[in-house]
């Protein structure tokens, strides 16, 4: 068996709360999101989890979630790499819009396709496939080497960048990965084999 990869979707953001498309907009955590980030840290601390390195996106909500987790595990000063390759999917013209207003403008069916299809991007934005095209090489070249050396890696990112990563880890198809729901602030602990395949997966809910 090789190393450990811990994935955490950031806690609820202020725009999650307001039902807005957030994408690359740099919004803060809500009060609930702060509590979720701290709770994620406590769950990992209770497991005796210690990290060798952390990765997060260029967006504040993921960075703060990452920091709260590291604070809880007594690793506030751990080396943390921030990169836009792990950013949320860019929703393009939908960024900042209320989801109900978007449905009124473009229609329920079209907005559903943009949100839940694998390879149809919204106007000016990215599909999940596009998001994967930046997440996958970043994982392979920047993160995976640490795991394959037997280290423990924390990744605090976003619903869609993590979906893309999970798709690669578990070999999930495009149509199936868009159905995967990731709870905010819920750690997913993967143990990987030396050949990079998944040995075990545990979702730390509740």
Walk me through this protein's architecture.
By secondary structure, this protein is α/β, with parallel strands linked by helices. 42% of the residues lie in helices and 15% in strands. The chain has 8 helices and 6 strands. Strand 5 and strand 6 form a beta hairpin. Catalyzes the interconversion of 2-phosphoglycerate and 3-phosphoglycerate. InterPro entries: His_Pase_superF_clade-1 (IPR013078), His_PPase_superfam (IPR029033), PG/BPGM_mutase_AS (IPR001345), Phosphogly_mut1 (IPR005952). Homodimer.
Topology at a glance:
Layout (H helix, E strand, L loop, with lengths): L3 E6 L4 H4 L13 H16 L6 E4 L3 H13 L7 E3 L16 H8 L1 H9 L11 H21 L3 E6 L1 H12 L3 H4 L9 E6 L5 E6 L3
Helix pairs in contact: 2-3, 4-5, 6-7
Q: Helix-strand pattern, N to C?
A: EHHEHEHHHEHHEE
Question: Could you tell me how far the N terminus lies from the C terminus, measured between alpha carbons in angstroms?
Answer: 27 Å
CATH architecture descriptor: 3-Layer(aba) Sandwich
CATH class: Alpha Beta
Would you identify the regions where 5 or more consecutive residues have pLDDT less than 50?
none
**SS content category:** alpha/beta
Secondary structure: helix percent: 40-55%
Considering the chains and any ligands shown, give keywords for the structure.
single chain; 206 residues; alpha/beta; Rossmann fold; 6-stranded mixed sheet; 6 strands
Give the gist of this structure.
Helix content is 42%, strand content 15%.
């Amino acid at each position: 068996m090789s190393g450990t990869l811990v994935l955490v979707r950031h806690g609820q953001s202020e725009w999650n709360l307001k039902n807005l498309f957030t994408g690359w907009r740099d919004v803060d955590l809500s009060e609930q999101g702060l509590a979720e980030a701290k709770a994620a840290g406590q769950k990992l601390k209770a497991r005796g989890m210690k990290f060798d390195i952390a990765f997060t996106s260029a967006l504040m909500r993921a960075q703060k979630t990452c920091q709260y987790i590291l604070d809880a595990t007594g690793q506030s000063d751990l080396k943390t790499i921030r990169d836009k390759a792990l950013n949320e999917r860019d929703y393009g013209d939908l960024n900042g819009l209320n989801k109900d207003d978007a449905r009124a403008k473009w229609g329920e069916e079209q907005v559903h396709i943009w949100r839940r299809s694998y390879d149809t991007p919204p106007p000016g934005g990215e599909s999940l496939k596009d998001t994967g095209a930046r997440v996958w090489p970043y994982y392979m070249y920047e993160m995976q080497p640490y795991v394959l050396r037997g280290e423990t890696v924390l990744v605090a990112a976003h619903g869609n960048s993590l979906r893309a990563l999970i798709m690669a880890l578990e070999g999930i198809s495009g149509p199936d990965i868009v159905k995967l729901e990731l709870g905010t602030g819920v750690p997913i602990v993967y143990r990987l084999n030396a050949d990079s395949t998944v040995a075990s997966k545990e979702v730390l809910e509740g």
